């Protein structure tokens, strides 16, 4: 789904799902096999995977793997009910994750409508799998579009500067999505365009997503960067070392914060 040299939090092929265990980063790169919705539930709850987009896609694909070779003898309506209940179960792994609950609701509606005209239970599972796989593909495409448009927007706002420095908080990259990232995707696009001077990332205490994950991604992608303490951001701003802060919200892909502005993180 993404470049072979890019970090992937989610590695999927039909009937197979592997998740990068983000609890072990940056010291160890290890993948966890997910064979059913129970494995997916545990991976989300235990923070093997994190980041709103990645959580939603993990849940959808965990169930897709489970039903890919399921010996199910019920009716289409019973298959739809089976999928719906499994999705409710997966949502309970992280009830506050908006992307997860939204994706589950859409998938529940899909299988319910499909059951009205389906000839057998297999058709329900097939449709579900195809849509879950499309979610994975679409997320990467959406993220690359965010990066491209965000990069162009910021360049215009900063007078087409060729030396843009950026501060980013938490982790909004490949590890939080299906690939490429949202706010960190904007940084990637700036770097690809040759206009990024440096990216600064904050620790993001108490879980240290910035120091463990974002710094790891930036080094992996060979993007010039510096890790700073959360409390050092204001000093860095005062000294004029960064121009823009792309950040993220629960219900938005990214938000640019020009130097001197403030932002509430959720």
Q: What is the percentage of strand-forming residues?
A: 15-25%
Output the CATH topology of the largest domain.
Four Helix Bundle (Hemerythrin (Met), subunit A)
Mean pLDDT across all amino acids: 90
* N- to C-terminal distance: 29 Å
Following the backbone from N to C, one meets helices and strands in this order, namely EEEHHHHHEHEHEHEE
Annotation, overall tally of beta strands = 8
Strands in their spatial order, largest beta sheet: 1-2-3
What does this structure look like?
The protein has 266 residues and is α/β, with parallel strands linked by helices. The chain folds into two domains: 131 residues, Up-down Bundle (Four Helix Bundle (Hemerythrin (Met), subunit A)); 113 residues, Translation initiation factor eif-2b, domain 2 (Rossmann fold). Helix content is 47%, strand content 16%. The protein is built from eight helices and eight strands; from the N terminus they run βββαααααβαβαβαββ. Strands 1-2-3 form a three-stranded antiparallel beta sheet, covered by helices on one side. Strand 4, helix 6 and strand 5 form a beta-alpha-beta unit. Helix 1 packs parallel to helix 3, helix 2 packs antiparallel against helix 5 and helix 3 crosses helix 5. The longest helix is centred in the middle third of the chain and has 37 residues. It starts with 9 loop residues before the first strand and ends in an 8-residue tail after the last strand. The relative contact order is 0.13. The C terminus is likely disordered.
């Amino acid at each position: 789904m993404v470049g072979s040299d890019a970090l992937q939090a989610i590695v999927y092929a039909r009937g197979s799902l592997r998740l990068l265990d983000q609890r072990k980063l940056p010291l160890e790169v290890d993948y966890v096999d997910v064979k059913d919705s129970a494995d997916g539930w545990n991976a989300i709850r235990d923070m093997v995977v994190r980041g709103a987009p990645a959580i939603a896609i993990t849940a959808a694909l965990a169930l897709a793997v489970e039903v890919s070779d399921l010996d199910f003898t019920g009716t289409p309506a019973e298959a739809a009910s089976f999928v719906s209940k499994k999705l409710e179960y997966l949502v309970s792994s992280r009830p506050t994750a908006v992307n997860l609950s939204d994706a589950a609701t859409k998938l529940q509606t899909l299988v319910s409508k499909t059951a009205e005209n389906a000839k057998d239970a297999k058709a329900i599972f097939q449709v579900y799998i195809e849509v879950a796989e499309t979610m994975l593909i679409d997320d990467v495409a959406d993220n690359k579009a965010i990066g491209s448009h965000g990069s162009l927007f910021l360049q215009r706002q900063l007078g087409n500067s060729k030396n843009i420095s950026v501060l980013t908080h938490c982790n909004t990259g490949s590890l939080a999505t299906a690939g490429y990232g949202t706010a960190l995707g904007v940084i990637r696009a700036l770097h690809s365009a040759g206009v990024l001077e440096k990216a600064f990332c904050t620790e993001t205490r108490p879980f240290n997503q910035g120091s463990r994950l974002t710094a790891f991604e930036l080094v992996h992608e060979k993007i010039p960067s510096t890790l700073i303490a959360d409390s050092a951001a204001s000093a860095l701003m005062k000294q004029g070392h960064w121009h823009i802060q792309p950040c993220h919200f629960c219900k938005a892909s990214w938000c640019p914060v020009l130097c001197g502005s403030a932002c509430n993180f959720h």
